[in-house]
Amino acid sequence: MDKKEELEKLKKEMEADKSLPLYEAANLVFGEGSPDAEVMFIGEAPGFHENKFMRPFVGQAGKLLDKLFVMINWPRESVYITNVVKRRPPENRDPLPEEIEAYKPYLKKQIQIINPKIIATLGRFAMNYFLPDFKISQSHGKGVILRGKIIYPLYHPAAALRATAILKELENDFKKLPALLKNYDNVKIKK
């Protein structure tokens, strides 16, 4: 079974899992992009537009993310984009700890299938999934090696839409991604 088939199988499992939080309230937004992506972007949870179109990052934050990809000459299709929680929380509230916990095994499996070199986390919830004691204001733009992968915290594009200073930080951090990927093999990987 190739990666695309494995991802499709996992998606079907999630669609059938009625025990998942938000199952009745929202559509599944599984993720999209290249199954062979070297860089995986992970946000916190889908918003209104994501729920409507069942695709990650397609609203205003997604449009900004697309501009950032253009800025570094990475086609959106070359990366993989998903969220920690795969269904939209009501009223766009933050995901609850039990929701994050329930979706954890599915995200873990997604990461195993894609096996990216870099996991770029978008916002504090995604960052804290991997680095629970870190603060986004201090950790953004600094790669951390974890289980053979570089975890690269970024501000969430939605936060950048609300504050010019955060937008500048996000742009600067994004510009570092191509060099980080290029030098990945030179980084001493700790298992």
Summarize the structure in words.
This protein is 45% helix and 13% strand. The chain is built from nine helices and six strands, in the order αββααβαβααββααα. It has helices at 3-16, 48-53, 60-71, 97-114, 124-130, 136-139, 157-162, 164-175, 177-182, and strands spanning 32-33, 39-43, 80-83, 118-122, 144-146, 149-154. α1 packs antiparallel against α4 (97-114). The longest helix is centred in the middle third of the chain and has 18 residues, at 97-114. The protein is globular and about 40 Å long. The model has no long low-confidence stretch (mean pLDDT 95).
Task: Please sum up the structure shown.
The chain has 191 residues and is of the alpha/beta class. It has helices spanning 3-16, 48-53, 60-71, 97-114, 124-130, 136-139, 157-162, 164-175, 177-182, and strands spanning 32-33, 39-43, 80-83, 118-122, 144-146, 149-154.
Keywords:
six-stranded mixed β-sheet, 13% strand, 9 helices, 191 residues, 6 strands, alpha/beta
Q: Give the strand order of the largest sheet, numbering strands 1, 2, ... along the chain.
A: 1-3-2-4-6-5
Give the N-terminus to C-terminus distance in angstroms: 26 Å
| Total of DSSP H or I helical runs spanning 4+ residues | 9
Task: Tell me the series of helices and strands, N- to C-terminal.
Answer: HEEHHEHEHHEEHHH
How much of the sequence is in beta strands? 5-15%
State the helicity in percent bands.
40-55%
Largest sheet: 6 strands, mixed
Low-confidence stretches: none
State the shape. Answer: globular
Which class do the helix and strand fractions yield? alpha/beta
The number of E-state strands comes to 6
Give me the Rg, rounded.
16 Å
What is the overall pLDDT average? Answer: 95
